[in-house]
Amino acid sequence: MVIDLNRCIGCQGCAVSCKIKNNLPEGLWWNRVLTVGGDEIDVVGGDIEHPAISFLPLACQHCAEPACLPVCPTGATYKREDGIVGIHSEDCIGCRSCIQACPYGVRVFNIREPERATSHALGSIAVTSGVRGTVEKCDFCVDRIDAGALPMCIESCPARARFVGDLNDPDSEVSRLIHETGAVQLQPEMGTDPSVYYIPVQHRSPRQTGMDFIASEPSTTYQQREITEMLSR
User: Fold this and answer.
1) Are residues 30 and 86 in the same domain?
2) What are the mean pLDDT values of the chain's consecutive 10-residue runs (233 residues total)?
3) Are residues 72 and 160 in the same domain?
4) Distance (Å, rounded) from C-alpha 199 to C-alpha 77?
5) Where are the beta strands (DSSP E) in the chain?
6) pTM over 0.90
7) What is the DSSP-derived secondary structure letter of residue 125?
8) In total, how many domains does the chain have?
9) For residue 154, what is the DSSP state?
10) What distance in Å separates the CA atoms of residue 89 and residue 135, rounded to the nearest whole number?
């Protein structure tokens, strides 16, 4: 998967659609969108003259060398031939060794009986979630992939910031994006070789604000200059 951080608008659509599709209990998220900027969600960083904000969608990285795999004592965590890392919930004993091993903090533990906002299950009947005492995480919507459909997070993204394909095919869209945009992995130094790549936010000239006009042209306001330009046309 490739995620274009220049396109992501932080709408949380991927997180919500993932939660509904996988019938996740209250308090558990397989897919999160972190705010890069301020200290809280949707809080702008930077300074008063040049505010800045961007977003980082975060879920299982489906690593080629997953740190969670060798530490699982029961074999509940497994890796498919196509590279997707999954969990057999019926084999999970809730030891949480995989949570400790994962450098990305994307696995969640069902510490209590599941509570849901609706009295009936939502989403795919092929997904088992919310089993008390087990660990779970993003599975790339394997039920949809096996049926020839796209993961729900991709289908629901209004900004079209996500792309999925075969990383081993040099002619695939994801391979082309990685090559052309300089997409990067998260924490490559951990040696896990994540299968999710991020197109970095491009360095742009700071957007001018009213403070810039006041500082540079104290005798002429932005509105005055705009009126002058309009009259001279």
Assistant:
1) yes
2) 95 96 94 88 84 93 98 97 96 97 96 88 85 96 95 96 95 96 96 97 57 48 49 54
3) yes
4) 29
5) 2-4, 32-36, 45-46, 51-52, 54-58, 77-79, 85-87, 108-109, 135-136, 162-163, 197-199
6) no
7) T
8) 2
9) H
10) 7
